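Researcher: Good morning. I'm working through a list of sequences from a screen, and I'd like to move beyond sequence-only analysis. For each chain I'm collecting a predicted structure so we can compare shapes side by side. This is the next one on the list. No need for commentary yet; just the structure.
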Amino acid sequence: MRMVLRLVRQVIWGIILLVVLLSTFGYAVYAANGILDEVEQRNRRDAHNQVQDGTATAITEFRTESAASDTPTPTLTPTATETPSPTNTATNTPPPTETPTPEPSPTPLPTNTPRATAIPTNTPRPSATPVPSATFTPSLTYTPSQSPTPSITPTPTYVIEGTYTPPVLTPVVEIPPRVPLMEDDPEIVNIALLGSDTTQGGGIGRTDVMILVSVNKREGTAAMWHLPRDLFVYIPNHTMDRINLAFAYGARSTYDGTGWDLFKETVLYNFGIELDFYARVNFDDFMTIVEKLGGVNISVDCAITDWRLIDPELDPTLEENWEYYTLPIGRQTLEPYMALWYARSRVTTSDLDRGRRQMDLLRAMWYQAREQNLFSQVTELWPEAVETVDTNMTLSDVLGFVPLAASLDISSIARYSGSVGVHYISMKTPDDGRMVFLPNREALIPLIQNFLTPATSNRLSRQATTIEVVDASHWGIGFDQVAADRLAWEGFTAIRGGRSDGVARDLTVLYDYTGQSKGSVLEDLQRVLRVSPDQVIVQPDPNRTVDFRVEIGRAYNSCVIGGEEENFEQGPPVAEAAENTP
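Model: Good morning. Structure tokens for this chain:
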């Protein structure tokens, strides 16, 4: 019996001790929660007082602090399933009219219901409304170190902002400002002649031939400007890139326009030239046009060496079907394949030199069409032409140019190209090492102005000068025609005199029948033909029929890059060159 009483007594004391311990633990939990709530409330009040309206950084800091202080833990913030009594769970149920607050832990803690009304100032204000907790995670917290960069969001440094779509990626060089419109004369018509690097069915491809033609109907003149394919410019709604990609980008379905629309806008933005028309061909189209002309007769003033197919019908994938071929200087007739070869060759020449040859071909094709009286047959030829050439010109547009095309003098066609180091700056892109040309606007804008304006007084004085050109090499390869065509690019009116009856000459000799020491174009002729003062013979003649006579020698060499006068070298070719010339 005594043992039973002792056992009952121990059980009672154990129960009393357990009750005391549980009470103590419960009070500790209650007190701890109260202290933490006070700390939480004080932190929220401090954070709330620091919020500045309209400052994203302050709002973000507030969200970050709230998330850190409201992170639930199993001990201090039991969930609904962990609530120790049904009473606490019921009092914790939010009223139906309340909407979830966007803070990470908006629901009042079960043990802190009475304190929920103690912080009415913590109600979020409209100016500082946090984002919904469903989309907010600490890993996406907006902090100053994660500020947007130009590769994602436009910055005030973009001069295109508000006009064009900002680039998705940061441009490798700064986007330049738009060039002002250079002309708005209705009598000046600007045309883009474009060539793609594809064959039939090969898609849009790159535009590797870009020649702008400006026709002044009032003055009866025309000018051509070759755009290097590697010009690095701003392509609107894209980024800084090679200009030969503009047409292809515009032809994509993602662009709200056509290839022509984007190319036209690119030229307008970077050069201030408003284009009116375009004509675009691929490799096959170009050869078809040359075939219709019966080949193209052209003056080759620069010998060119490159690989070519021994026969255009041979398989180009077999190495044995190719040969390393040199096209010599002289008057040449090029069949379709060789005409394309001449326009595209780049193994031993530069892109600017290719542009010079391409303009040579265009002028030769125009001259040949005029000699064949094709301009009078435009109406009959037009249906076939539009099957070959992609253009926005109508038959009516073309007929408007026929009178000028049929009467234009060859010396009234100017050629512009530009020079590396002057108009174009070579650059390797920092992202992938592409070699490109950056336009040097300080020098390029005056070139564009000359391209768009009528002939200067200097060029007009050249056109008023008559020059007879004869071939004194006795090789019979058309040096008189080659030199006459070269002089025509500079505005001189040259008359072919055929083969000289005198002795064969090694060096070119220039006869001056004007005798004018001032205001003469003699220096211009010397520079173009590379004739030294020792090769000039002054014979004033008041009864002259021409102002100058040029006898082209075997050492003739007027080859230039791009056709710009700053490329001309002073002095004649060395005499030894004639001995080694075949």
